[in-house]
Amino acid sequence: MTAFISVLRRDLLLAFRQRQDLLNPLLFFVITCSLFPLGVSPESEFLAQSAAGILWVAALLATLLSLDMLFRADFEDGALEQFMLSPQPLYLLVLAKILAHWLVTGLPLIFLSPLLAVMLFLPSEQIPLLMLSLLLGTPVLSLIGAVGAALIVGLRGGGVLLSLLVLPLYIPVLIFGTGVMQAAAASMPYNGQLAMLGAFLLLALVLAPVAAAAALRISAST
Amino acid sequence: MVEPDLYSRRSDLGLAFAPQDYQQGNSFRIIYLHVPAAALAQSCYLLMAIAAVVGLVWKMKVADMVLKCAAPIGASFCFLALFTGAVWGKPTWGTWWVWDARLTSMLILLFLYLGVMALGSAIQDRTTAGRAVAVLVLVGVVNLPIIKYSVEWWNTLHQPATFKLTEKPAMPAEMWMPLLVSAIGIYSFFGHCLLLRTRNEILEREKRTLWVRKLVKGEPTDAV
Q1: Of A4, A42, A153, A159, which is most buried by a Cβ count within 10 Å?
Q2: Nearest chain A residue (CA) to B115
Q3: Are B122 and A161 an interchain contact pair (Cβ–Cβ within 8 Å)?
Q4: What's the angle, vertex CA A175, arms to CA A205 and CA A64, rounded to 5?
Q5: Which residues of A touch B156 (CB under 8 A)?
Q6: What pLDDT, in 10s, does the model give residues A170-211?
Q7: Are the beta carbons of B61 and B126 closer than 8 angstroms?
């Protein structure tokens, strides 16, 4: 547990020393959201209808962009190998890194989403639900993405490859995340979709760090 | 027993001799390609997942090779299933494509195949590539039950499965017998392709060894 906390603290500290890197995914999120009114239609009915989908897709892409750096710096300076040699289970250390990644990318996105939701004319009573769906969904994105990031960590130009590997796995999360909002917009019960998101989160929480740890060992063995 | 040309020889059973559907006329005949291809695309992923477990647990090289060789075949059949589905959807549903659960999950399956192939070719070292791909395949295997049960969990345009092991098919025997033959034919074709590709892969990897050199020159070898 001490190892978990110290890795978490180290990663958060490193992240706060590089503040610009923290801001970039957020800026990307905001800019992507603002492309839709300009590119498709600025009318409020259209935007109110598609706001949840736009925010979800933008959050997904912003997470994807930040994933590349999840293990790369540690891989390059050799810290990753020290993690593997340490007597602590790699599962726990990977989980700490993923949690730190979510705290610096996923969580700010959730806090930023009400602002963008208002700009995209999402009905204000749906905003808490949007934040809840993102709260359940973005950790899944970080967890699944960590597996992909671990697989490509040793490769040059892995960024495009990463999106090819990870995006298909993100689609079910996206479907249920936006499903919550669509059900709420049609004033239908949305508990089922929320429960599915929660189930995804629990499943990913248990399995994804195992897969990511295995993938890291494979990537580091070359 | 692998009969590679069973499909090419006996597909006429369904394509020409099965009776017409009373609603769809002749257009339903594409079922004899669509259903076997779709079933195969899923089975192929399952086979890759099993090969991935074998490769990761027992570190068998052949399992890695089977995994690598099965991916392009699976991707082709997945594409074929989507394509024939679109062609069939146009006269019956009136549209090439709908975003329904089964179609979307088959599309995800195609993306997974393409991702597996991309990762496999991006890593230079063969052993590492094999193991990395195996991890990716195992992570993606969650999609299989979603495809399988999508038509039962969600109310979709796509009809439920044509064949079930436990029930009598809803079609008359003149229609489902050719379908069974087509399915067995496609599976045999797949097995044949997979064995051929794997044999090529083994020869390619072992090209520096003596037995392959002897094989190429046509000299007698003690290797099988």
Answers
A1: A153
A2: A165
A3: yes
A4: 60
A5: none
A6: 988 888 888 888 888 888 888 888 998 999 999 999 999 999
A7: no
Nearest to B123 by CA among A215, A57, A199, A178: A215
CA distance A164 to chain B (A): 6
A90 alpha-carbon distance from chain centroid? 21
Backbone angles phi, psi at B141, to 5 degrees: -70, -15
Chain A segment 142-161 residues within 8 A of B by beta carbon are 144, 147-148, 151-152, 155, 158, 161
In sequence order, the β-bridge partners of residue B21 are B25
**A186-195: pLDDT as tens digits:** 888 888 889 9
Q: How far from B176 is each of B39, B85, B92, CA to CA, in Å? A: 15, 18, 20
**Under 8 Å CB-to-CB from A8, ≥6 apart: which residues?**
A96, A99, A100
Check: CB of residue B173 under 8 Å from CB of residue B18.
no
- Across-strand partners of B25? B21
C-alpha distance from A170 to closest chain B C-alpha (Å):
10
Instruction: For residue A221, list chain B residues with Cβ-Cβ distance below 8 A.
Output: 128
* CB-based burial label for B5 (10 Å; 0-12, 13-18, 19+): exposed
The ipTM of this complex is: 0.83
pLDDT at A6 over 70: yes
Q: How far apart are CA B18 and CA B172, in angstroms?
A: 10
Label residue B69 exposed, middle or buried (CB < 10 Å: 0-12, 13-18, 19+): buried
d(CA A61, CA A57) in angstroms, rounded, equals 6
Q: Which residue range(s) make up the domain with A24? A: 2-221
Question: Which tokens belong to B115?
Answer: 């991702």
Domain ranges within chain B, ordered by starting residue: 30-217
- Is residue A130 within 8 A of residue A113, CB to CB? The reply is yes
The domain total for chain A is 1
Query: What count of Cα atoms within 13 Å lies in the side-chain half-sphere of residue A101?
Result: 27
Torsion angle, CA of A82/A165/B140/A69, rounded to 10 degrees? 30
Of B112, B123, B132, the CB nearest to A168: B112
